[in-house]
Amino acid sequence: RNGQDWWRSAVIYQIYPRSFADADGDGIGDLPGIAARLDYVQGLGVDAIWLSPFYVSPQADAGYDVADYCDVDPVFGTLDHFDSLLAEAHRRGLRVIIDLVPNHTSSEHPWFAAARQSAPGSAERARYVFRPGRGPAGELPPNDWISVFGGPAWSRLPGDAEWYLHLFDARQPDLDWRNPEVVEAFDDVLRFWLDRGVDGFRVDVAHGLIKDPALPAWDRPSGEIVDGGARGPMWDQEGVHDIYRRWRSLVGEYGPDRVLVAEAWVAPASRLSRYVRPDEMHQAFNFDFLTVGWSAERVRRSITTTLRENDAVGAPTTWVLSNHDVMRAASRFGLADAVSWPPAAGPGTPPPDGALGLRRARAAAMLMLALPGSAYVYAGEELGLPDHLALPAEARQDPTFHRTGGVEHGRDGCRVPLPWAEDEPAYGFSPSGASWLPQPEEYGALSVDRQLADPQSTVSLYRRCAALRTEFALGLGTVEWQEAADGVVAFTNGAVRVVVNLGDEPVELPAAGHRVTSIPEAISEGRLLPDAAVWQW
Ligand code: TEU
């Protein structure tokens, strides 16, 4: 596990600090809470953790609005807490990747405070994208760009002549990455954390840092997904690659084991693979896999294409089934069409079939963990948690919900604090019983203590598969497709045959010595039931 290129086959566990475990009782998870649960994480058999932002932040976007890149928000702890979490993780053989949010700062970052007080044309404003408005009195935004979170991508400070760009919330002003001062400041941020010993960075909105300098009209075809395919003059511009080449060489100074992971909503796969050319990032999230839904044909195509495009540049493929931005798999796969986009539909969407969703989520996890490359598991997925779909509006905090006036129900449902102990207040999330979002009652029966004691539970399945994945070196293997009925995905990876039934009919299985199934009753009379998966060897 400590060899070079550990990341090529790693299982990486995403921890959302607010929601993982609370040590100090304020109802918000923190770094000491994570440190106290590392035995559990290690027991899952994962290779690394990725921590979502814990930096100083007013929390307008749950920490993706950073006011100080080189310190810990008091809500999460201190730098000392970070250092001891890192040391404890490393002692257990777990690597630690942290989030880097370079596209925008918080509006409370000292740079923005300075820009606010400075005149148009000043060096303080040149770190951001300030422009005069259109219309006789500049009362219209500079162009038609809209924010990923809804509404215009431009706001004006009270009484100000200029507008500033924000691809996300108005409290997340975009930086101007053509400004060398910005570039150099981030070199220091990377070094600050690399010097402390982190194993890498997950780069937020990696496709957005450079905008077409002319800021041309977007002319977005109506109905087009805002950032899913990432077309438009603010996404996937050529200049971003210069930044990643620079970072690759900076990170390389610290040895071959430190990695960069791109969060880039870029399609098609051939375009995304440009982020993982040998002198750029090590990995990019494969959101195609996340958005194909429950269709054997689309799943096969996604696997084939992404493996091919990543092989072409020598990068490992990644597999992502969930994260803190999308509906949890156990709910998503239970939606009527099981299509996972849009990821967080609004109140009008018919509720998912929870039992079906969980069955499919377990099968999908077995599919993902059987594939070569690197797999990302969002904390709570290993418990088969559903989204909290019934959160009351007043509890919801995600700007997506508020900026769309509730048209999108936002991402709070997948961010509800984890249940650790069925019989404790807040299901063991916090010693005080507090929880920043209310937990649904069904989380009790899904709590960690109960699942660890049950060999048939979802967490037991994850642990078993992660161990077998290591034993059979599946992460470094190759996919050989097998002849299969309609609706069925079947392949071998080394000694292991993998069959996933995404169709409506049971399918015949060849006999084999050993097997793991996604649910205990997956196989009946030698046939694999719909919505089930098996590994045989
Ligand atoms: O998300 C980037 C992004 O493009 C998201 O808008 C994503 O497409 C969407 O959430 C899918 O529903 C990153 C972070 O993961 C997200 O939590 C932040 O809100 C966002 O950047 C801004 O920093």
From TrEMBL:
Xref: SMART domains: Aamy
Keyword Hydrolase part of the UniProt annotation: yes
Domain Glycosyl hydrolase family 13 catalytic per the UniProt entry, residue ranges: 14-415
CDD domains: AmyAc_OligoGlu_TS
Molecular function terms, GO-annotated: hydrolase activity
Secreted among keywords: no
Sorted UniProt keywords: Hydrolase
Pfam name, any one: Alpha-amylase
Protein family per UniProt: Belongs to the glycosyl hydrolase 13 family.
Name assigned to this protein: Glycoside hydrolase family 13 protein
